[in-house]
Write a structure and sequence with these properties.
- It is built from two helices and five strands, in the order ββββααβ.
- By secondary structure, the protein is of the alpha+beta class.
- It has one domain.
- Strands 4-3-2-1-5 form a five-stranded antiparallel beta sheet, covered by helices on one side.
- The radius of gyration is 13 Å and the shape is globular.
């Protein structure tokens, strides 16, 4: 699985939350996260960092310094893709 592929991955976050994340369209930032029985196309960066334990890339300079530089749901996708590539048995394709 790569960052640009479409598909779905399911697993636990560093803080133990069970999530499924779907990349809907290759080459685009169309991601949804299924968490606690609900589907989210948008999540606050703070929630992803504090509740899930997943880092969101942020802008380091300029007027928007500190704001996310990627779709927050993409950060969840990135985390699960990395875990899947590393062979984490708890992260599976769905």
């Amino acid at each position: 699985m790569t960052y640009s592929e479409s598909g779905a991955l399911r697993g636990r976050t560093p803080n133990g939350q069970l999530l499924t994340v779907r990349h809907l369209k290759p080459g685009q930032s169309k991601f949804v996260v299924l968490w606690d029985g609900r589907t989210y196309s948008w999540l606050p960066a703070r929630l992803v960092k504090e509740e899930f334990g997943i880092d969101v890339h942020v802008k380091k300079t300029g007027l928007q310094e500190g704001y996310p530089s990627e779709a927050v749901t993409r950060a969840v996708w990135r985390y699960f893709v990395d875990q899947h590539k590393q062979g984490n048995p708890d992260v599976t394709k769905t």
